[in-house]
Each structure stands twice: as C-alpha cells, then as structure tokens.
Amino acid sequence: MPAMPPMFETSAIVRRFRESNRKSAEHEQRARKVVPGGTSRATMLQKPFPVYLADARGASVWDLDGNERLDFNNNMLAMIHGHGHPEVVAAVKAQLERTSAFTSVSEREAELAETLCGRVASIDKVTFDNSGTEAVMMAIRLARAYTGRTRILRFEGGYHGFYDPVITGSFSNPPVDAPHDPHPPVRDMAGMPPGVTEDAVLVPYNDAEAVRRVFREQGERLAAVIVEPMLGGGGMIPGLPDFLRTIREESAKTGTVMICDEVITLRFATGGAQEVYGLAPDLTTMGKIIGGGYPVGAVGGRAEIMDLCRPADEGGAVMTMGTFNSNPVTVTAGLATLKLLDKAAIDRLNGLGDRLRKGLSDCIEKRQVPARVTGAASCFDIHFTRREINNARDVATDDEALQQVCSLGLANRGILVSKSRKGGLSTVMDEGIIDRAVEAFDDTLTEMTAEGWFDSARH
C-alpha cells in the first residue's frame, strides 16, 4: 500500500475510525505476530488497519467492537443472497448431518452441472474445483491441450486469480498515454520465474483495434484469449459491445479458444454477462455465487473441449483433481443459491444497482468533486479521478489516499466497502438500504471537502 499523506493522520475521519474500531486495531497487532501483515487476504489490507468481523446476518455485518455495517462487499461479491439466507442454511445443515465430504462422488455434482448447463447457453459440460483461480488454471490448460499452442492474450488490469501465468502484469500498467501496442506482462510480484511472461501478451481493455492487431500478428500462436465481460478487479469497467464482439470474431478465425471469465459477472443474468452481450465463448470460468458462500470454482464450455477431461482410455488428455472438488456442502449450497436466483431476482437486483450508481453519480455532480462511478448490473466502483474510465490505465489515475479516506468515512456511517470502494449488492437489500448508502456517501464527500481532501493543491 502506498504511504498516506501527512493529513491522513490528522484527519477527523481517520480519528473517528480509530476510536470506534479499537478492538480491530488490537486484533491486528495480535494477528501480525502469527500471520504476515495480519491477514491472509491482501485485498483486505487498508490504512490504518483492517476491520475484523465477528458476525453477519442478512445485509449486515458486525465487527469486533460491535459496530453494525451494511455489507456492500459481500465477500467479494460471492454472497449474492447476503449472509445466512434461511433456505441456503437449511440445505447445508441437512447435508452436514450426512457428511461434509467423502472420498467418492456426490450425486449432486451432476445436478449442479445440469443447472449451469441449463442456464448458460454456451456450456455443454462442466468440471468443478475450489476457486476461481483454479477454474482459470484448468481453462487455460484445456485451451493449450486443445490447440497445441501456449500463448495467452490478456487485458491490462484483468484479474483472473492467483495463477502465475495470469497474475503477472495485473498490477503494473503502462502510462495512461502510452501507445496501445501489444506488450508482455511485467513480473510485478516476487517469486515468479521468467518463463511466466514468455507466453503472454497484454493489450488495453476495451480497445478493439488492439485486439485485431494482436490477432493479425500472433493469432496462429494464441492458445486462448481470456476476458472478463466487465473488468472486475481492474475497476468494474463494462466491456464495450464492439470490443467483446471483436474478441469472439478474431479468436474464431484463428481457432483460438475464447475464455469468458464470469467469476464475477455470472450474476448479470441467468445466463451470465455473455447472455447480455450475446456472446458464445468456447469456455467459461465461474465461481463465487455458484458455491453459495463456500469455496468453489468451475469451468464449462463446448463438449469437444471439455471432453479432454475424460479418462485417458476414452480420449482424455487433461486430468481434474482435488480433494474437495464438488464436495457435497458446496454443491448443496450452490444449488440452493441458484434456485433462489431466478430472472425476477436478478432483474430486481440489477434495478437496485442502477439506483445506487445513479445516486452516487448525483452526489459527485452535486458536490463537484473529482470522481467517477463505474459498474453494471448489481456491481459498482467509485474512482477519484476526473478522467473518463475506459480501461485500467485510466483507473491508475485514481487518487489512492482519497480512496482510503472515503472507505473509512463510509465505515464511520455504517457502510462497508472495500478500500477501493468497489462492491456488489445482495438480494436481501432494498431501496431503503441503497438510499442509506447514497446518503452516507454524500455526507462523506461533504466531510472530505471540509477537511481539504479535494483542494486543487493535491492534484
């Protein structure tokens, strides 16, 4: 994390956060003695310290000090029905009375696979694992096995999990005004061998012409192109329709496998964001909501590619392995969650997302502060920059001090967001909750303005 400016320590916003979260501050010191940094989840780190949670129900969470906050994180968008939904809890309890796992196959694995195949038009068959990272790992392995090629096309700012070949370059982008030329990723994290950058090429998100150029120059060498229909971790930036169509058209010409990363965007519609955009990718990676709050990942797609996972004596060439793959608790929770998540529920949730983004944008316009709101469906992000947000280079102009202070100001007013202010809604929320969040944001901007955070000297 970057160093905060001196005014961070003298801010009344920060002081109020410290005073009302003393037990979290104390717990961080305890945790740091046995866990590097105080947590195994780097995305939760923030200044002056993370909030440590103790309880959650519905749309609310409670921290160690007993502060209640409305949860707009929802475990990085995994808890689409909020916390402890009674139907999901009942299904999981019934399964736990039988077993949490066994060294065999749960009959419900096929039921969840049938559900996903029935919802997402491009999916013929599915395999399960335990995280979105693992799903991406398997999808890339399948693409390489299917094509006999190794090179992967990715997009700047795209986050596809912690797998070395897809995380390199996720946190380092060229300067905002640099040419949109294809380039290799940067090893922006220690411990990665040089080889992880050799089979990857990056271009800016939402640049259709850059995609065409890569395929003209390297199309016959590309095993896969992996893209999020909305750049999630990179700033909740919706893909432009022409950009996504170009990826599909160009990859089809060269026999390159198009992987649609829907770990976040599957919540956009019953058939995911690809249904909204009219896309038919070769493979789709999934996670988060399909596990009902338990660890999960899945990759699905065209039968001829997925059948590479068959036994070797049936023509298979890629093995799927994992002690907890398709474990009965996750599968049961996922089935209960997707049953509740029908078209009506998604439409209602997306309407709340529209209401939230409009409310946040109205606050920015009213207060005349340097900020932008991005997102789509039930997802949102707030950026402190005057620059229009189209790709990850634009997001890099975001003022990180303003990000952190805003998140603390919202926490002081009972709203929990990530340190970068991105988040997603849950079906247990209503218009009243949305309006409370907008009011808290407006009050936070007012306080930040009074403290001088938006003074021109800072920019």
UniProtKB/TrEMBL annotation:
<dbReference type="GO" id="GO:0008483">
    <property type="term" value="F:transaminase activity"/>
</dbReference>
<keyword id="KW-0808">Transferase</keyword>
<dbReference type="InterPro" id="IPR015422">
    <property type="entry name" value="PyrdxlP-dep_Trfase_small"/>
</dbReference>
<keyword id="KW-0663">Pyridoxal phosphate</keyword>
<dbReference type="InterPro" id="IPR005814">
    <property type="entry name" value="Aminotrans_3"/>
</dbReference>
<dbReference type="InterPro" id="IPR015421">
    <property type="entry name" value="PyrdxlP-dep_Trfase_major"/>
</dbReference>
<comment type="similarity">
    <text>Belongs to the class-III pyridoxal-phosphate-dependent aminotransferase family.</text>
</comment>
<protein>
    <submittedName>
        <fullName>Aspartate aminotransferase family protein</fullName>
    </submittedName>
</protein>
<dbReference type="Pfam" id="PF00202">
    <property type="entry name" value="Aminotran_3"/>
</dbReference>
<keyword id="KW-0032">Aminotransferase</keyword>
<dbReference type="InterPro" id="IPR015424">
    <property type="entry name" value="PyrdxlP-dep_Trfase"/>
</dbReference>
